[in-house]
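Below is how a single chain appears once it has passed through the pipeline. First comes the sequence as given, then the structure the pipeline wrote out for it. We keep one example in the README because the format questions we get most often are answered faster by looking than by reading.
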Amino acid sequence: MLELEEILVNEEGYLQFLEELESAKNSFSDNARVGGEVLKDAVGDGWHDNFAYDEVMRKEREIVSKIKNLLEVKKHLKVVKENKCESNIVNVDDKVELLLRYALDDEEIEVIKLTGKYIPNNDIGEISLNSPLGRSIYKKKIGSKVSYVVNEKNIEVEILRKV
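Resulting structure:
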């Protein structure tokens, strides 16, 4: 199993995580019900050469693995309090404009929203507190220059302003 570090979420992210766990548990119950029906409808002893039963059992192993992983993640969740901090500090739910420098001649400006959700919505530019970028800018001052590493490549970040 993965060695997990602290996973930061806000209250909304914690509730989102609990919904994900509950959904996995419900999937397990639904799959068990289907498995019972497959066995009941099978000819003979119910499981020899029963491909539907094999599929139910494969799905059960998949769901059990997901539940085990989520329970392990739960041990590492830390709910961050959304304290109001100075206006020049990057906090949860802030939208910030960043200058990302990948190399001397390769940089871009990007606006992101730092989120405490368990599963961020990347389609609207949300970045998790737990991502390398999120961890590098969380609770840093506007104007700070920080960096993070992805795939052994150092990326420099300048926090330009809150949007």
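The chain has a mean pLDDT of 88.

See the next section for the split statistics.
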